[in-house]
Amino acid sequence: MKRRDAIKNLSVLPVAGAVVGTTLSLESVTAAPAAPPAPKRNLFRELGIRTFLNAAGTYTAMSGCIMQDEVIDTIRATAGEYAMIDEVQDKVGERIAAMCHAEAATVTAGCWSALVLGTAGVLTGTDMEKVARLPHLEGMKSEVLVQKTHNHGYVHALTNTGVRIVEVETADDVEKAAGPDTAMMWFLNYAGPDGKISDKEWVALGKKLNIPTMIDIAADATPVENLWKFNDMGFDLVCISGGKGLRGPQSAGILMGRKDLIAAARLNAPPRGGNIGRGMKVNKEEILGMYVALEKFINLDHAKLWKTWEDRIAVMENSVKKIPGVSTSVIVPPVANRTPTLIISWDKGRVKVGRDEFINRLRDGSPSVAVMGGKDESITITSWNLLPGQEKLVAARLSEELTKASA
Ligand SMILES: *Cc1c(COP(=O)(O)O)cnc(C)c1O
Prior knowledge:
Blueprint: H1 3-10, H2 16-20, H3 26-31, H4 43-47, E1 53-54, H5 69-78, H6 85-99, E2 104-108, H7 111-124, H8 128-133, E3 143-147, H9 156-159, E4 164-168, H10 171-177, E5 182-188, H11 199-209, E6 213-216, H12 226-233, E7 237-241, E8 253-257, H13 259-267, H14 284-299, H15 302-320, E9 326-331, E10 341-346, H16 355-364, E11 369-370, E12 372-373, E13 378-382, H17 390-406
Parallel strand pairs: 1-11, 3-4, 3-5, 5-6, 6-7
Antiparallel strand pairs: 2-8, 7-8, 9-10, 10-13, 12-13
Helix pairs in contact: 5-14, 6-14, 7-13, 15-17
The structure holds pyridoxal-5'-phosphate.
């Protein structure tokens, strides 16, 4: 062994001095540093990506949520072995269905994917020729009934399958619009309070007219009863995001409901190809991660969790509410994203900064903080995406920027 190589090897040999023995001077032994643990790569730093504290909410563009620890453990623990996707889906689906009072369930690549695949299943049933034909609907039904106030951007998930949205407002409209071309009736849970037909009436109409009903509860994991409430109510299909309140993988969601419809939806989904869902892939560790996220979430102490969210909100509210010209209030949204939400507004005559500029200052500061803009000079803040203790950092930044703008 050359001397230079011997010194280089010191870093990997536990008793290097003893191995190389007397050929090495004491000086070179002491000069060779002990092997430091390999530093973990920090890709955010390496690539210059700005991370931030998320006081805004579960927004896809902000990378959704931080997964629960058990979900990350599950992904790590299951990523190193192979399993057949269908078998993973079968086993996980059974457990999810039992937890949520559904006949069957399958893990999808998000709530959007659940909406597409569920609709596809309704259209095709188990007819493989129809599966191959989508989004061309020859020989299939072609219309989905949606209340006018529920007709938001999310319906694009449905129209991906080739269907047309037919708007209705009243129960009478539904009875008139329903016909041989009606494939499904879709309900957007968060728009529930804005429509003339309630969730229960929607289900009753579907049953009366023999039309499958689907509900989108993407961001409505709280209160936890929502996870089974709509299955109990009688919706044929229920769709929820995995990476919002459930804090599962961002690229996962759940489609649950009638057994025949879930089976049909799966024919339109990976691992099978030649269908419209082939791109909506979700791998075994994400499927298992989704399952663990749901299980952990259901078993959380929800009263305690709510109190934690409220306490964090109070820390942030207290840091700014005495600043002259600043007012605060705490609300809980009625349906989606049900979590204590802090609204901070200010009088621009006394706190001299516009809303968007204020949001930018929080983003550009250290630590970077994301909040959402509200009406006029106001912002909204939630605490469920913060990690423990981060509320103090957010509170300090809010107070600092508002105080500076008041000077
Ligand atoms: C977020 C959201 C979706 C899409 O869910 P993903 O899990 O991001 O695919 C669909 N519908 C509503 C109402 C949502 O809020």
